[in-house]
Amino acid sequence: MAATLCGMGMPNQPPAPGRPRAYWAVAVIIALVLLTVGYVITRIAGGGADGYDARVACQKFVQDQLDARPVIAERGHGPATAIFSNMQHVGPGPMWTVTGTVQAGATFRRHFTCQVRLDGDVFRLVSLTGLYDSAATPSRLT
């Protein structure tokens, strides 16, 4: 006589060979759908902007400051010659802190920290520090 499962009179049979794989496939599909939905919600909440966009915005603000300084612009150290390096960003949005180095010409090289806030579809400068000596310009621009 065949063994019974839980005493209910049902024969003890191994599960069908394809069933465990089907459960894994369903679990993977559900996980992918949840990840996709989470990504879309995050992009919508952040206005579609990310850390790279914050870096670009900070580069523009730094270039604007270089252009606004007549002494630097006259010596050929303006935005056209600015080279950015070591760019990093921190922040989940809508506020990012971006750090980096700018070199304009042979004599102007500064490490800067820039904070930007996403306001709708536009980045607003919160602060920009390190670009000039504190005696020459305020460290906080608004």
Task: Give the N-terminus to C-terminus distance in angstroms.
Answer: 86 Å
Number of helices: 3
Return the CATH topology of the largest domain.
Nuclear Transport Factor 2, Chain: A
CATH class category of the largest domain? Alpha Beta
Oligomeric state of the chains present here? single chain
Could you tell me the radius of gyration in angstroms? 28 Å
Can you count the beta strands? Answer: 6
Give start-end ranges of low-pLDDT stretches: 134-142
> Which series of helices and strands comes N to C?
EEHHHEEEE
Topology overview:
Elements: E1 4-5, E2 10-11, H1 19-45, H2 51-68, H3 70-74, E3 82-90, E4 95-104, E5 108-119, E6 122-129
Antiparallel strand pairs: 1-2, 3-4, 4-5, 5-6
Q: How does this model look, in words?
A:
It is a single chain. The chain is of the alpha+beta class. It contains 3 helices and 6 strands, in the order E-E-H-H-H-E-E-E-E. The strands form 2 sheets. Strands 3-4-5-6 form a 4-stranded antiparallel β-sheet, covered by helices on one side. Strands 1-2 form a two-stranded antiparallel ribbon. The longest helix is centred in the N-terminal third of the chain and has 27 residues. It is elongated and about 90 Å long.
Structure summarized in a few sentences:
With 142 residues, the chain is an alpha+beta fold. It has three helices and six strands; from the N terminus they run ββαααββββ. It has helices spanning 19-45, 51-68, 70-74, and strands at 4-5, 10-11, 82-90, 95-104, 108-119, 122-129.
